[in-house]
């Protein structure tokens, strides 16, 4: 099975479904990750709120931060076991993805043409890059008539409201420790206030939950 993980930012692959990525690789699936933005805005809000450690490592330009975050995501994916050919960086500016939805659809058409499963952030999402990533997934699926495509929807901030047949729980067990180590490779993020406890929460997460849908379900559910 070809599975493509849609990550709005570097590190969302770990937060959204890191243990499941490892599970799918162990099962022999062909797992790809597409990172849509370059993470350059990672320090903006923390600086505004005074929640960024003031040190030489954080006194860099947004261009420098973008390069660093992309390199960290590449290293984390290598650590998780994603083949180099299966790592796709689109490098749209962080916080500007909603203005590049159509261009992103064009860029990923060849990557997703023979896919079996999309793993995507939820719809109805207050974060503009997360919502744009969801929108891109739906648009490209419709454009390519991927009517049998399976959507696994993960959530990052907003709650998962899937239930019954639309809810899947994947037990990740001790794989969560490897996800935690992968998260630590996103070193630049650990200068922000909340990253440490968020990473520890991932280390302690024994199951990952997804809403599961098909294309014709789009718009009928809170997360899809």
List keywords for this structure.
globular, 7 strands, 224 residues, 19% strand, alpha/beta, 39% helix, Rossmann fold, seven-stranded mixed beta sheet, 7 helices
Polypeptide structure, described:
The chain is α/β, with parallel strands linked by helices and 224 residues long. The chain has a single domain (2-217), classed as LmbE-like (Rossmann fold, 3-Layer(aba) Sandwich), CATH 3.40.50.10320. The chain is 39% helix and 19% strand. The chain has 7 helices and 7 strands, in the order βαβααβαβαββααβ. The protein has helices spanning 12-26, 44-49, 62-80, 101-112, 128-143, 175-184, 195-203, and strands at 2-7, 30-37, 87-92, 117-121, 150-154, 167-171, 207-214. The protein has a 7-stranded mixed sheet with strand order 3-2-1-4-5-7-6, sandwiched between helices. α4 packs across α5 (128-143) and α6 packs antiparallel against α7. The relative contact order is 0.20.
């Amino acid at each position: 099975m070809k599975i493509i993980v849609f990550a709005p930012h570097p590190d969302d692959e770990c937060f959204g479904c890191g243990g499941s990525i490892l599970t799918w690789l162990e099962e022999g699936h062909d797992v790809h990750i597409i990172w849509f933005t370059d993470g350059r805005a990672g320090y903006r809000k923390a600086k505004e709120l005074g929640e960024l450690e003031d040190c030489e490592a954080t006194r860099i330009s947004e261009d420098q931060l973008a390069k660093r975050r992309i390199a960290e995501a590449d290293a984390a994916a290598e650590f998780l076991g994603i083949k180099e050919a299966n790592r796709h960086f689109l490098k749209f500016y962080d916080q500007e993805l909603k203005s590049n939805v159509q261009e992103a659809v064009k860029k990923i058409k060849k990557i997703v043409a023979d896919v079996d499963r999309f793993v995507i952030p939820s719809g109805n999402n207050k974060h503009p890059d997360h919502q744009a990533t969801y929108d891109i997934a739906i648009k490209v699926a419709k454009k390519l008539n991927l009517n049998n495509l399976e959507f696994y929807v993960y959530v990052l901030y907003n709650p998962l409201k899937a239930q019954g047949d639309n809810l899947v729980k994947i037990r990740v067990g001790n794989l969560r420790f490897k996800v935690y180590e992968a998260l630590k490779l996103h070193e630049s993020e650990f200068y922000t206030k909340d990253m440490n406890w968020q990473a520890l929460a991932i280390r302690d997460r024994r199951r990952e939950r997804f809403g599961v849908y098909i294309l014709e379900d789009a718009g009928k559910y809170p997360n899809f």
